[in-house]
Design goal:
430 residues, alpha/beta, Aspartate Aminotransferase, domain 1, Aspartate Aminotransferase, domain 2, 46% helix
Length: 430
């Protein structure tokens, strides 16, 4: 709806008047829904939520059972501002994994603060780890709301390549580019905050392997040691990690380096139980922090709480209590894990059928999680052509995102063929 009165210019400052609430994902979801309502034979590959083969949300039965068992207090009362203690412990365990105790014995202290989803954790880091006017380091293909969060915090984005130049044989991490960006940020702003969405990257489904994780980590370790007066924060955005083959690979990568860990490098996880426990709308996550200095972490917890208090007040109590209950009850935890594992298998089947059917199409590396991605200079035209085949995907800044999580298993091959046919008809080349 257009404002033709000019009132927006009077009432709103320029930074507010320029904002728009439209989201490309939800816009293309709406197009799918409209076509479906008209009785057309269409496939939904837009939304980032686990849907079953009938297009219904997969709701983990362990969560439903836990919510039913919760006392009324946990359904309606406020949460403590840092989060329920039991949930904070659970979030640390889920984010870091079964080697949490080993990590702590090796020399790391850990803490956590509840947030409304992984998005809340990202916001906490952006608001506190940089100054307005600084930039966050991300990979060149990234989840669009990264930009929105940065904008809202008065920050920019600087990127490094998703994958290395293919001419650099045997190197999938562009270490030269990463190190260069780190040095540039240190020089320009004195601090570095990097958001690394891994494993099960959104929007590609890419996961770094052990060697690649080591390459990335070594770049940060070297930069931190070379610049002892600069602060470095490596935040792992692990929203989809529990649907990856190596959900806690970063813990395995980090532990051997703890003994010689530089004091000026902070490690964080933005963890989303909204994703892992299929409670997207309940908004539940945490920022988990790890560092050898316990005092530093104890100083940071009230800092994050302060930001949360002034933004969303307190994170919702109900999902925290439900998640904590699940992971303190062996029966519920087994039920939750069985559903999660089964859905991971479904995702892998859908991914393989899609990739096999999309002959001649160039995809970004896609291994795990909810998504696959076709890089393209004109993603809107490609999406529009794909839509003529009754398949609705999402045009992002650098390509087309396929929500493997939402498309029916039986339709995965159809989606792959639709992409292939659209790719060919538009004259695209691999």
């Amino acid at each position: 709806m257009q404002d033709e009165s000019g009132l927006a210019d009077i009432l709103l400052p320029p930074h507010a008047a320029s904002k728009a609430g439209n989201d490309v994902i939800y816009a293309w979801l709406a197009r799918y829904q409209q076509a479906s309502a008209e009785g057309k034979d269409v496939v939904n590959g837009t939304i980032g939520a686990l849907l079953d083969d009938d297009g219904e949300l997969v709701f983990n039965p362990a969560v439903a059972e836990a919510i039913n068992r919760l006392p009324d207090l946990d359904k309606g009362a406020y949460s403590p501002l840092p989060g329920l203690p039991t949930y904070r412990d659970t979030a640390r365990s889920l984010a870091i994994g079964p080697r949490l105790e080993e990590m702590e014995v090796a020399g790391f202290s850990t803490e956590s603060v509840a947030s409304p989803g992984g998005c809340g954790a990202l916001y906490l880091s952006a608001r506190n780890m940089l100054s307005p006017g600084d930039s966050i380091l991300v990979r060149s293909t990234y989840w669009g709301p990264y930009r929105t969060i940065a904008d809202e915090c008065g920050l920019g984005l600087v990127d490094w390549p998703l994958v290395a130049d293919p001419t650099e044989t045997g190197q999938s991490v562009d270490k030269t580019a990463l190190s260069s960006r780190l040095n540039e940020l240190v020089s320009n702003q004195g601090r570095v905050l990097a958001w690394l969405n891994d494993p099960a990257h959104n929007p590609t489904g890419m996961s770094l392997d052990s060697a690649e994780r080591n390459d990335v980590l070594n770049c940060f370790l070297e930069a931190a040691r070379a610049n002892p007066e600069a602060g470095f924060t490596l935040l792992l955005d692990t929203a989809y990690a529990l649907y990856a083959e190596e959900p806690h690979g970063w813990t395995d990568t980090v532990i051997p380096h703890i003994e010689n860990w530089p004091d000026n490098l902070l490690l964080c996880w933005a963890f989303s139980t909204s994703k892992s426990h299929t409670i997207y709308g309940l908004r539940c996550g945490a920022i988990v922090i790890a560092h050898p200095d316990r005092g530093l972490l104890e100083r940071m917890v009230p800092m994050f709480v302060h930001t949360g208090r002034g933004t969303w007040s307190g994170s919702p109590r109900l999902p925290q209590a439900a998640v904590a209950m699940i992971h303190s009850n062996s029966g519920l935890e087994t039920m939750w894990d069985a559903t999660r594992a089964a859905q991971s298998e479904v995702l892998e089947i859908r991914r393989q059928r899609l990739l096999d059917a999309a002959t001649g199409v160039h995809f970004d590396p896609s291994n795990d999680g909810y998504f696959a991605h076709v890089p393209d200079p004109n993603p809107v035209s490609l999406c529009e052509e794909i839509a003529t085949h009754g398949v609705y995907l999402v045009p992002l800044a650098k390509g087309v995102r396929i929500g493997i999580c939402s498309l029916p298993t039986h339709a995965a091959e159809r989606v792959g063929r639709a992409i292939s046919e659209a790719w060919t008809s538009l004259g695209r080349r691999s």
